[in-house]
Write a structure and sequence with these properties.
Blueprint: E1 4-13, E2 16-26, E3 31-35, H1 42-49, E4 57-62, E5 65-66, H2 72-78, E6 80-83, H3 95-100, H4 110-116, H5 118-121, H6 133-145, E7 151-155, H7 163-178, E8 182-186, H8 190-196, E9 199-204, E10 207-212, H9 219-227
Parallel strand pairs: 3-8, 3-9, 6-7, 7-8
Antiparallel strand pairs: 1-2, 1-4, 4-5, 9-10
């Protein structure tokens, strides 16, 4: 059964039509990357799936159940976890405390997260306020994993981070993927997205304009869709 199915979704922010008629599906065990320039609608789509925005039209089904109007806190219990842009950690808490505050029953534990994310393994007793950007992002991803999601939504994984931190994070994400977690991530870095995803979807001005496996898409195709060159058809 398809894990996530989005049908003809429209999302508005006041007069701004941020997402326009988007339909997509994610199968269990897939890693799907949403790419596109700033303002393409990627983060809005991800946050709508997570229950943070209400769509104006369309539907979202998760594991066969319509979740279009289900509030965000209930979606966590159903197995959907969002790592938001900006991380939003509890800065006065330590890394370990940030992880434990989100704990739900399942195979992801504090020790399992720290093993998967060596970047923060030696910082478990450091307060989040003293962490680097990469360490904060690793902690934010780990905190969401502690909810033991079946579907992990990652918003702007590499935004604002140094290349060495991005390398560390993507090595850890490969471990997460290898352990069977289904991932839908928003990423502006085409090379990173195409290197980790089993499928890439490009958005432009709120619409899906290109979709395929990385091994079937050329860099030129993705770049043209990313910038709207030639207006690739959905």
């Amino acid at each position: 059964m398809t894990l996530l199915e989005v049908r003809e979704l429209d999302v508005r922010h006041g007069l701004l039509h941020a997402v326009r008629g988007v339909s997509l599906a994610v199968e269990p065990g897939e890693t799907v990357a949403l790419v596109g320039a700033n303002g393409a609608g990627k983060s809005t789509l991800l946050r709508t799936i997570a229950g943070a925005h209400r769509p104006a039209r369309g539907s979202i089904r998760y594991d066969g159940v319509d979740i279009t109007r289900v509030p965000a806190y209930e979606l966590v219990g159903l197995g959907i976890g969002l790592v938001p842009e900006g991380r939003h950690l509890f800065l006065s808490l330590t890394v370990e405390e940030n992880l434990r505050v989100a704990a739900r029953p399942g195979h992801w534990t504090v020790e399992g997260v720290l093993e998967a994310f060596p970047l923060i393994a030696q910082r478990r007793r450091s307060r989040a306020v003293n962490l680097s950007g990469g360490e904060r992002q690793a902690t934010a991803i780990g905190r969401t994993l502690m909810t033991n999601p079946n579907l992990l939504l990652l918003d702007e994984v590499s935004l604002g981070l140094a290349p060495v931190a991005i390398d560390d994070l993507y090595r850890s994400l490969k471990t997460v993927i290898e352990r069977g977690t289904t991932v839908l991530l928003v990423e502006q870095d085409l090379e990173r997205a195409m290197g980790i995803a089993s499928r890439v979807i490009c958005m432009l001005e709120g619409r899906l304009v290109l979709e395929g496996r990385p091994d079937t898409l050329s860099r030129e195709q993705v770049t043209n869709a990313y910038f709207g060159l030639g207006r690739a058809a959905a």
